[in-house]
């Protein structure tokens, strides 16, 4: 095998063969670590549970009539401003 000075030989397949269970465990561990890094807030699960424990203390869209439409209008205006800035 002719290798350049900066190259290393490829490992033999039997040297890198890993049992599937180990691969799955490592992928799951990495996914969990990655998900934990991107948690929006440290008490997200506890806050979500609070909504289940105290439904009378939580609000929903019906409690704020017209809010969804107001947000949609604000988003549309924001998009128009951004589009105008991009074209100018």
Give your account of this protein's structure.
This protein has helices at 13-16, 20-37, 44-53, 67-87. The protein has 88 residues and is mainly alpha-helical. It has one domain (13-87). 0% of the residues are buried.
Supply the number of helical segments.
4
Compute the average pLDDT.
80
Task: Characterize the biggest β-sheet.
Answer: none
Overall form = flat
The helix-strand sequence is: HHHH
Number of domains: 1
User: Structural class, judged by helices and strands?
Assistant: mainly alpha
From the alpha carbons, calculate the radius of gyration and give it in angstroms: 26 Å
Proportion of residues in helical segments: 55-70%
Low-confidence stretches: none
**Beta content:** under 5%
Q: How many β-strand runs?
A: 0
End-to-end distance = 58 Å
């Amino acid at each position: 095998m002719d290798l350049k000075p900066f190259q290393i030989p490829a490992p033999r397949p039997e040297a890198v063969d890993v049992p599937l269970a180990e691969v799955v465990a490592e992928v799951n561990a990495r996914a969990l670590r990655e998900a934990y890094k991107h948690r929006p807030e440290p008490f997200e699960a506890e806050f979500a549970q609070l909504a289940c424990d105290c439904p009378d203390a939580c609000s929903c869209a019906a409690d704020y009539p017209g809010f969804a439409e107001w947000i949609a209008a604000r988003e549309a205006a924001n998009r128009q401003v951004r589009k105008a800035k991009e074209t100018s």
